[in-house]
Write a structure and sequence with these properties.
With 246 residues, this protein is α/β, with parallel strands linked by helices. Helices cover 35% and strands 19% of the residues. Strands 1-2-4-3-5-6-7-8 form an eight-stranded mixed beta sheet, sandwiched between helices. Helix 2 packs across helix 3. The longest helix has 16 residues. The termini are far apart.
Length: 246
């Protein structure tokens, strides 16, 4: 699988299909394996690219804290160097604020934007959900260690960085979000116990060209838990002719 050096980040990514570029941004603590059920289906209509962000999956960690804004800059570099121009962006969970920050900073690089199961402000997480218990940390330590170039025991350090970031970031306001004028689909499962529905609805209402999809009987792991509905809704949005939502 391909890799590319983006500044200090030796970025691993996977790709599938052909056509217009579509970039998938995975959840925090996870990696492109989270999209293993999605790449083949979306790849039937798009050239899908899914990078592992710094410290995740097969992309090594670097010294210093994690920041959503830094990972957005990494994504911008990926769009410029690998895609070579604008792409559709789909961000899930922690990938959602990364995608949103990219769109706000570089709208010229975003065709259509899908924001799924994430927060625009750290206060949007449900109480306690970012505090992983020992069993979950043990699971992620093993899962992350299967592929991480940082070794099999690096996840607890990554979790410390993620927890600090998720506790303090992102800090976007609805006024800042309202400045983004691109077509955007906001998605949430009606059984998501990590992001309250009210937080998601406020995000949708702030977007000038926002659409909202509340997926029935779906939890936080929407792309994996309800893949058929996820694919149908996302493809309907991405394949809609320009101007059809105006």
């Amino acid at each position: 699988m391909p890799r590319i050096q983006l500044g200090p980040i030796d970025t691993y990514y996977e790709e599938a299909g052909g056509g217009e570029p579509l970039v998938l941004l995975h959840p925090g603590g996870a990696d492109v394996r989270a999209f293993e059920r999605n790449l083949p289906v979306l790849g039937e209509r798009f050239h899908v690219l899914a990078p592992d962000r710094r410290g995740h999956g097969r992309t090594p960690d670097v010294d210093g804290p994690l920041h959503y804004a830094t990972m957005a800059d990494d994504t911008i570099a990926f769009l410029e160097a690998v895609v070579g121009g604008p792409a559709h962006l789909v961000g899930h969970s922690d990938g959602m604020p990364v995608a949103l920050l990219v769109a706000l900073e570089r709208p010229d690089l975003v065709r259509r934007l899908v924001l799924a199961s994430g927060v625009f402000h750290h206060s949007g997480w449900a109480p306690g959900v970012i505090d992983l218990d020992d069993d979950v940390i043990a699971f992620f330590t093993e899962w992350h260690g299967e592929v991480s170039p940082d070794g099999p025991d690096h996840f607890p350090l990554l979790y410390e960085k993620l927890h600090r970031m998720q506790s303090e970031e992102p800090t976007l306001t609805l006024e800042e979000i309202s400045a983004y004028e691109g077509a955007t689909l906001v998605m949430i499962g009606d059984e998501d116990d990590e992001v309250p529905l009210e937080h998601t609805v406020s995000l949708w209402r702030a977007l000038p060209r926002g659409s909202l999809a509340i997926v029935p009987r779906a939890g936080h792991g929407l792309p994996v838990g309800k893949p058929e509905l996820f694919h149908a809704i996302v493809l309907d949005f991405l394949l809609e002719p320009d101007g059809a939502d105006d």
